[in-house]
Structures are given as structure tokens and as C-alpha cells.
Predict the 3D structure of the following.
Amino acid sequence: MLSTVIALALSVPASAQEFAADMVAARALLTDSRTGRPWITSHENGILQQINAALAHLTSESKSAVVLISGGQGSGSGFVIDAAGLVMTNAHVAGMAGLNGKMKVRFTDGRELEGTVVALGNPGNEEDPRTGRDLALIKVSPGKRVLKRVELGDSALVREGHMVAAMGYPLGQPFTATQGSVSGLDGRAGVRVKFLQTDAAINPSN
């Protein structure tokens, strides 16, 4: 369920009259002047409709680049970052296969390719996994097929409130997508990795 929260910057009213005036101003802000109806829900180009359309488009465009990875007694999700066949996933997913190990990569259309672990980070220790780099790269050979890929973003451009989506195959089950927003940017003291915090529900293996 998508929940949209709008924050209105209203002054603290000193009287009932001022409070009433603020409420009128807020209502005007959210009302379609042509129809008199709430703009956020009634206008065909309203905020809620734009958000819904953007999230649906994001999921549709990204889904074919999200893959299920299995093998080496591990499984999880990953995504294609290069059309030539480079897939990014977590080191704890590919760790049991090991560097140069073989893993199966399954796409949304059911096609399955064999991949090779070409880069393997350190997921960190059990006491504090944040000290590691839990990333791995798997190379597949797509042949004549051009793989759909996702582009890596620039974390320096991320701001609180930006929309995010978490996609994958939770515990090897069918594809799921959840949405939310970036809720925090600050890293934690003493940790080398700077985290982006999100309120999007993260299904296991997504």
C-alpha cells in the first residue's frame, strides 16, 4: 500500500480566526481551482496520480533487469548493470560459490543462464556486518540476446523524501516490488560504510 504524506508549512495560530484562515489556505493549496475538487485525488495530473504512474513505470522498466541467483548453497536477487552480461548481487549470496565459482541466473521470462563469480567482496563479520563490502559481480554470456540493464545512480544526488523501490525474488519466490522513500542520509559513527536509510519494506532476498 502506497502512503502519501504531504507536509504543509503553516504558522502557529495565535487565535481561532488565524487557525481558520490557515485551514482555508491549506484547502486552497490542495484544491483544483477549475473544479473545486481536491487536486491531489481528482485531477488527472494530480500528485498522487503522478506518483503512482512514476512507480509503476519504474517497476515495469526495471523488472526484466532483476534476476534470481542460485547455486553454491546460496540464493538471492541481483540486477543486470551491463547489457553484455554483468550482474551485481551480494557477496553473501555468491560467497558459497566463491570467486570463479558457477551460479545460475534466472530472468523474468524464465530463461536461465550459467554465470561465473568474477568479483567477490567481504560481507563483514557477524558482530558488525557493516564493516564489510557485501557486493559481488557475476558474468553471464547472453549470446545474441541484449539484456535489459539498470543504471547505477549517484548517491550524492539522493535527498530525503526521494522515492525508492525494492525489487527481487524473496526466498526464490515470484517477483515482488515494494516502494517507499529515502528517510535518512546520515552514516553511523565509526562505520566506514555510509548507508542510505529507507522506509520501503524489504522482503527477504530483495
